[in-house]
Write a structure and sequence with these properties.
This is SRPBCC domain-containing protein. The chain has 192 residues and is an alpha+beta fold. 45% of the residues lie in helices and 22% in strands. The longest helix has 20 residues. Strands 1-5-4-3-2 form a five-stranded antiparallel beta sheet, covered by helices on one side. The termini are far apart.
Amino acid sequence: MSETPATRRTTMSDQALIEGTGADWKTWLSLLDERDATALDHTAIAALLVREFDLDGWWAQSITVGYEQERGMREPGQRADGTYSANVSKTVSADAPTAFEWVADPDRQVRWLSDIELTQRSASPPKSIRFDASDGTRVLVNLSAKDGQKTAVQIEIAKLGSAEDIATAKVAWRERLARLAEAMPTLLARVR
């Protein structure tokens, strides 16, 4: 069975693409093929989409990655530099500043990160923080407040060595996020 755009790119449907850009995957693939985009690198394809079709950067990047995957230029989860990345998320019962403290503070990390050490690279409290991990990966954390009492903790694990490492990283980070949610005091407990 040959793969189609719908089977290769399960993260974005034709409908979402049509709503966001006015065209489906088949159309975007054809337009890029007409411009011999397989001969271009990632940056050049995205720039072409912005320049010729007036797409914003997010849509240009999304279409570029989908095109690269469909044309065998990149595997799912593979970044332009050849490394791989994985994403996991969990909603925790805490406001964003509290969640940020639990993710950023090394003393609190000990309570939910027993198997890996993180070294902070940069931070924009309470929205994001970047780390180098002791296993050689990069960990990028984004926090999004939900109704003031909950926060979505979204993690990208970058610099994975292979496509096979994606599943392993997802399992490990889902377990870590579950421990974070258990270790973190809830807002209700703090109010009482």
